[in-house]
Design brief:
With 261 residues, this protein is an alpha+beta fold. The chain is built from 3 helices and 15 strands. Strand 9, helix 2 and strand 10 form a beta-alpha-beta unit. The radius of gyration is 18 Å and the shape is globular.
Length: 261
């Protein structure tokens, strides 16, 4: 069995819901397309778009502290640069994030939605070219091994939605936690895309939140440590050569000798 792309998803706004994709066009040295383009500042964070620096996630609205965000379903339409927010199946806000008026509309919604969780006025931030609001400074593309999630699920004895880990690429075909053996290796597709796996992803309390209900119902980092002696699930990769990733497409490791299912 080969390493297969089971699903693709992007997160246009940090902390908000995923958008499933059938394909994604990657560019050498760039981030996953359309991912973490925006963040919502929770009070002044000191972010300077003219000289962007990586900021700790606690400066933004995010699931680790603000689980109520999971009750919102969002979508971002690139063609009209507009974010739509739904709650309980009903649209509750929309705004063109390229305009001051649109950003103000989204900010006003969050002031109404979660006033007790705000440290100051919420502000929609836009990532300048070459920068994204990722948790890791070099978190260009994140990959999740679904077999690892199933193994953790069996250890916990409760369902674990892989979307808790907010990865861009879900993989099938690897043995549980064999993705860690990919660190330092290069993954290639038949279409020529090449990703270099750079490091494991350490998980935080955001994974404790059910992505559908917003309920903090599991203790994922604690369970990982108890079962495996680490907090890690998933890997980061850099784009060495661009190309198109598609659901159902296979990866191969250039060095081979991986533990497959």
């Amino acid at each position: 069995m080969s390493i297969r792309i089971a699903s693709l998803q992007r997160y246009p706004v940090k902390g908000l819901s995923p958008e499933p994709l059938t394909q994604a066009v990657l560019t050498k040295g760039d981030y996953f397309p359309g991912d973490r383009l925006f963040a919502i500042e929770n009070g002044p964070a000191g972010f300077d778009p003219d000289s962007p620096q990586h900021q700790p996630k606690i400066k933004f609205l995010m699931l680790m502290r603000n689980e109520s965000l999971a009750r919102l379903k969002t979508r971002y339409l690139d063609s009209i640069t507009t974010l739509f927010i739904e709650q309980g199946g009903r649209e509750v806000a929309r705004g063109d994030l390229s305009t001051r008026e649109g950003r103000l509309a989204i900010e006003a919604f969050f002031r109404r939605f979660m006033p007790k969780e705000l440290r100051g006025a919420p502000k929609v931030l836009t990532a300048p070219d070459g920068f994204r609001f990722t948790d890791s400074r070099r978190g260009f593309v994140s990959l999740i091994n679904l077999a690892s999630v199933r193994e953790l699920e069996a250890r916990i004895g409760a369902p674990v939605d892989p979307l808790r880990f907010r990865g861009n690429v879900h993989l099938e075909g690897l043995a549980p936690f064999a993705e860690f053996d990919l660190v330092g290796q290069v993954l290639t597709t038949t279409s020529g895309t090449r990703l270099k796996v750079t490091k494991r992803i350490e998980r935080c309390a955001a994974t404790n939140v059910d992505p559908d209900t917003g309920i903090r119902d599991l203790e994922i980092p604690k369970s990982l440590m108890k079962a495996y002696g680490h907090f890690d699930c998933g890997i980061y990769a850099e784009v060495l050569q661009g190309g198109t990733l598609e659901v159902g497409e296979d990866f191969e490791a250039e060095q081979g000798a991986l533990a497959l299912e």
